[in-house]
UniProtKB/TrEMBL annotation:
It comes from Sulfidibacter corallicola. Belongs to the outer membrane factor (OMF) (TC 1.B.17) family. It is found in: Cell outer membrane. GO terms for molecular function: efflux transmembrane transporter activity; porin activity. Pfam families: OEP. Keywords: Cell outer membrane, Coiled coil, Membrane, Signal, Transmembrane, Transmembrane beta strand, Transport. GO terms for cellular component: cell outer membrane; efflux pump complex. This is TolC family protein. The lineage of its organism: Bacteria, Pseudomonadati, Acidobacteriota, Holophagae, Acanthopleuribacterales. InterPro entries: OMP_efflux (IPR003423), TolC-like (IPR051906).
Length: 509
C-alpha cells in the first residue's frame, strides 16, 4: 500500500515539474509559428517566384529595343574612265558607317521602328589628286500593323502568352492558400487534441481523488465496525487502477505535445520544453446557411478560383488558335529623309571639268533634319496557307481542353457542395452532442451524490459507488471530446467556405 502512495506522490511531483517547465502557447501563436516554419509553404513561395519570373519574361518582348552598329571598310579600285582620273590608275575607297535603330512592339499587333543611319565615304587616287569625301545621313520611321492574324482588341489574343502566364501566377497564389489552409487545419486539430488530453488528465486526477476519498471513508467505517475489512480491498484496487489511468493520460499528453511540435516544425532544442495551451474550450455557436455558404465557397475557395483561372486560360487559348487560322495580312508604311554632302575636290590641271562641291557631316545632318528631301512608302503583305492543318489541329485541341476545364469545374462544384453540407452537418451534430453531454454530466453528478448518500446510510456498496464514479468520469470526458469536436468542426466549416485564412488573420503573401 505504501508503494502505491509513493507512486501517487511521484505522479504528482512529475506533473508539477512538467507544469513549471511548460511554455504558455495560444492558438494564434501556434498557427503563426506553423505557417512561418512550414517547409511546404516555403517551397510553394519559391514556386510562386518562379511563376512571377515566367510572367515577367512574357512582358520582355514588349520592351523597346535599341540597336547600334558601326563598321569601316577599305577597297582598292582601278580608274575606268577619265571622270575618275587617269584611266588604269589605282585608287582607294574607304567607307565608315554608324547606324542606330529603336523599335518597339505594341498592342493590337503594331510594331514601329526608327532608323538613323550615317556614313562617310572617302575616295582618292594614288600619288595624285583627292577625289573627295561624301557624307550621307538618313532618318526613317516605319510601322508594321497586323490586320488579320495577330490583330485584335482582346488581350488574350495579342498577348496570349502573357495572359496565360498571369493566370498561372495567380493559380500558384491560390495553391499557397490551399497549403496554408492545410497547415492551419492540422495545427488547430493538434492544438485542441493537446487541450483535450490535458483536460482528460484533469478528469483522471479528479477520479483518483474520488477513489481516495472512498478509500478513507471505508477505513473509518472499518474502524467503527460498520464495514467488513474485506471491502477495503475493492477500493484499493480502484485507486490502483485510476493511478494507472493517470500514467496513461500523462503519456497521451506528451504524445499530443509532440504532435503539435511536429506540425509547428519547432527546432530540436525546443522539444524538451512542454507546451501549455492558453486557449480554453469556449464554445461560440455558429449559425450556418447552406445556400449562402455554398455561394461563399464558390466565390472564395482557392480550388474554385483556380478552376476559373484555368477556364479563362483555356478560352484565351481557343481565341488565339482561331485567330491563327486567318491569313497573315500586314500593313507597312514608312516616312523618312536623307541627304548627302561632299567636301572640295581637287583635280590635275589637265583633268576634265568636274562639279566642285563643299560640305561636311554637319551639313548632311542639317539637311536630313530639315526633311528637305522626304520620302514615304505604303504597302500590304499577304501570306496565306491554304490548308493550314496545323492551325486547325491546334484549334481542335484547344476546344478539347476547354471542354475538360468545363467538366472539371462542374465536378469541383459538386465536391465543394458536398464538403459544405458535410461541414454544416458536423456543426449541427456537435452542437447537439455538447448539449446532450452537458445534460448527461449534470445527471451523473447528481447520481453520484445520491449514491454516496446511500452508501453512507448502508444502502449501497463500494462497487456501485466506484461504478458511478467511472460513469461520471466518462461523462466528463465525453463533454470534453464533444467540445473539441465542435472546435474542429468550426475549423472545417470555415475551410469549406474558403475563409480559414481570414478567420485567423493569416496573410499568405
Amino acid at each position: 500500500m505504501h508503494q502505491r502512495w509513493l507512486l501517487g506522490l511521484l505522479i504528482l511531483i512529475s506533473a508539477q515539474a512538467l507544469a513549471q517547465d511548460a511554455k504558455p502557447l495560444s492558438l494564434t501563436e501556434a498557427l503563426k509559428t506553423a505557417v512561418e516554419r512550414n517547409l511546404d509553404i516555403e517551397l510553394q513561395r519559391v514556386t510562386i517566384e518562379s511563376q512571377r519570373i515566367s510572367l515577367d519574361l512574357t512582358r520582355a518582348k514588349y520592351e523597346p529595343t535599341v540597336t547600334a552598329d558601326s563598321s569601316i571598310a577599305s577597297q582598292d579600285n582601278r580608274v575606268e574612265n577619265t571622270n575618275q582620273g587617269q584611266v588604269g590608275a589605282n585608287f582607294n575607297r574607304e567607307t565608315k558607317r554608324l547606324n542606330s535603330a529603336y523599335s518597339k512592339t505594341h498592342d493590337f499587333g503594331l510594331t514601329y521602328r526608327v532608323d538613323f543611319n550615317n556614313s562617310v565615304r572617302k575616295s582618292g587616287a594614288a600619288n595624285e589628286a583627292l577625289f573627295g569625301t561624301t557624307y550621307t545621313s538618313s532618318i526613317n520611321f516605319s510601322i508594321e500593323q497586323q490586320l488579320l492574324r495577330g490583330f485584335g482588341f482582346d488581350e488574350s489574343v495579342y498577348r496570349k502568352d502573357q495572359f496565360v502566364a498571369k493566370g498561372n501566377y495567380q493559380s500558384s497564389l491560390e495553391d499557397l492558400k490551399i497549403q496554408v489552409e492545410t497547415v492551419l487545419l492540422n495545427t488547430e486539430d493538434a492544438y485542441w487534441n493537446l487541450v483535450a488530453s490535458i483536460e482528460e488528465l484533469k478528469v483522471a486526477q479528479q477520479s483518483l481523488d474520488l477513489a481516495k476519498q472512498l478509500y478513507e471513508q471505508n477505513k473509518v467505517k472499518i474502524e467503527v465496525g460498520t464495514l467488513a475489512p474485506i471491502e477495503l480491498v475493492n477500493t484499493e484496487a480502484t485507486v490502483a487502477s485510476r493511478e494507472n489511468d493517470i500514467v496513461t493520460k500523462e503519456n497521451s499528453v506528451r504524445a499530443a505535445e509532440d504532435a503539435l511540435k511536429k506540425v509547428m516544425n519547432l527546432p530540436v532544442e525546443q522539444w524538451r520544453h512542454s507546451l501549455k495551451p492558453s486557449d480554453e474550450l469556449k464554445i461560440i455557436e455558429t449559425t450556418p446557411n447552406l445556400e449562402a455558404d455554398y455561394q461563399k465557397a464558390l466565390d472564395a475557395r482557392p480550388e474554385s478560383i483556380k478552376n476559373r483561372i484555368a477556364m479563362d486560360n483555356a478560352k484565351a487559348e481557343l481565341k488565339f488558335q482561331k485567330n491563327q487560322l486567318l491569313p497573315e495580312l500586314k500593313l507597312t508604311g514608312g516616312y523618312g529623309s536623307s541627304a548627302n554632302s561632299s567636301n572640295d575636290v581637287e583635280f590635275p590641271e589637265d583633268a576634265p571639268p568636274q562639279i566642285i562641291g563643299t560640305g561636311s557631316f554637319t551639313d548632311a545632318l542639317s539637311d536630313t533634319a530639315a526633311f528637305d528631301l522626304p520620302g514615304w512608302s505604303v504597302g500590304l503583305e499577304l501570306s496565306w496557307t491554304p490548308f493550314n492543318r496545323q492551325a486547325k489541329l491546334n484549334q481542335t485541341q484547344a476546344e478539347v481542353t476547354l471542354r475538360q476545364r468545363e467538366l472539371e469545374t462542374e465536378q469541383s462544384q459538386i465536391v465543394i457542395l458536398e464538403e459544405v453540407r458535410a461541414a454544416i452537418r458536423d456543426l449541427e451534430t456537435n452542437q447537439k452532442s455538447i448539449k446532450a453531454n452537458e445534460k448527461t454530466l449534470k445527471f451523473r453528478e447528481e447520481n453520484l451524490k445520491a449514491e454516496e448518500q446511500k452508501f453512507q446510510n448502508g444502502l449501497s456498496t463500494n462497487y456501485r459507488v466506484s461504478e458511478v464514479q467511472e460513469e461520471l468520469a466518462q461523462a466528463r470526458n465525453s463533454l470534453i471530446q464533444s467540445r473539441v469536436n465542435y472546435k474542429k468542426a468550426v475549423t472545417k466549416y470555415h475551410k469549406a467556405l474558403g475563409q480559414l485564412n481570414q478567420m485567423h488573420n493569416i496573410s499568405v503573401q
